[in-house]
Amino acid sequence: MEADNHNSDNSEGQRPERITRRQAAPQELSIDDTNRDSMDTSLSNSYPCTSHGNETKKRGKAVVAIDWLELAGCVMWSEIDSRETFIRLFQCQSEARQINQSIIYNVADYACLLRPTGLGSGRQARQTYVLDTPFGLLAFSDRDDSDRKLPNFYFKVPGEKCLNRSATECREFAHRVVRELGGMLVDEWVRRIDIAIDLPDLNIRSQLVKAFRHQHFTTSAKYAHEYQIDRKRTGFKVGAKNSVALIAYDKREEVMTKGPEYLLGMVQKRWGGSLPQHATRVELQIAGAWLSQFGDRKADDILGGLSPIVDKLLGEERPWFRLTKTKPDRENNHQTRAETLPAWKRITRRFIKDAGLPGEKLERRKPPLKRININDPRGLKTIQCVLGRSAGRRGHQINDFEDIIDELRDLNSMNPDLEHRWQEKWRLAAIDAGTYIKPADIPF
Length: 444
Known about the structure:
Blueprint: E1 17-18, H1 33-44, E2 50-52, E3 55-57, E4 63-77, H2 83-99, E5 103-107, E6 110-114, E7 129-133, E8 136-140, E9 153-157, H3 159-164, H4 167-180, E10 183-200, H5 204-213, E11 217-219, E12 223-229, E13 232-239, E14 244-250, H6 251-255, H7 260-269, E15 279-287, H8 288-291, H9 299-303, H10 306-314, E16 321-323, H11 342-354, H12 376-394, H13 401-414, H14 421-433
Antiparallel strand pairs: 1-12, 2-3, 4-9, 4-10, 5-6, 6-7, 7-8, 8-9, 10-15, 11-16, 12-13, 13-14, 14-15
Helix pairs in contact: 1-11, 10-11, 12-13
């Protein structure tokens, strides 16, 4: 669930602590035998559960599921099938504006609420119509000129919806609505995804929070601070939600601040049918900007490969964050020498295993070369700069355009191996511009 939806992330005005390197003698974290036995029992008694994509099959106590999902996409609308639909949508939205409240709009066998206004402003893509559905918020526009910068489709599934229904079921409903409205989704990508593991009967304060307070952790994030719910420090948060954030907190404490429906959903879907005395959640909030480092973040690829994402962030090979048995030596850059806290190692292994089928490890893709569209004035300035520097180095004086031609002729004669590139560059540019005419072969 999104951090901002919790009652308070920093309700006492506590500022996030920036991680700095400070030298300190390694201190062994003392964990009493009772808490260690509690941790071992909590994880060892629950056998693995598997999750294909975002469908969770619970076989034990630990449950991994998507807890937040935001998608964007490009829809190609049919001129024939969607024409009458959008006329009816426009009329219904006009009625909603007159009464200044949402009205019922039936689509895909469900009653939804059509808002009187659209969604998006400023630099965001404008979505003309917004539907509040039982599966999430669906926004779309009838314009066809859509791309990744200006999509005409947006779908958000918050934590409460992910709890009552699987993220896959919610996404399938959004696709069904698009088809019924006369559209076809030609591109769909992930803007944000939260992946969480719920561990009932695990007391986070016993050792995880204790290790964090002693600064027994390593991370490549800039910020880390204790996490609060109703001014109670129940866990910790690392990172920022505009890239990657990890929140580990007392889920039972948070659930008690919500309504009975949410409590029942947690008991039935996450805690195995009973209210535990303690419950811990470890949650990864992953923004699309972070996912873009490893590919084009297509929804099918991301939702079908959650395990490699969790492994990249929390796996044993250069993890983004881990709790340690001792305080790492940050001053001398020896953080890797600190051993991982056994309890944290068991949690992350379960997290990776239950997130789905193992896949290929994420590898950062090389950024594409930026091809700048050079217009005529900019190109002319570049030519002037090159020829001017060349003439200055060789002691040639330039007074008029004829001197420029002479300097260009001299440079061309000094590099005969590059003379053929003039025609080749022209030919490629003419082909791109559509002005190239292939010379005809005339037999004699």
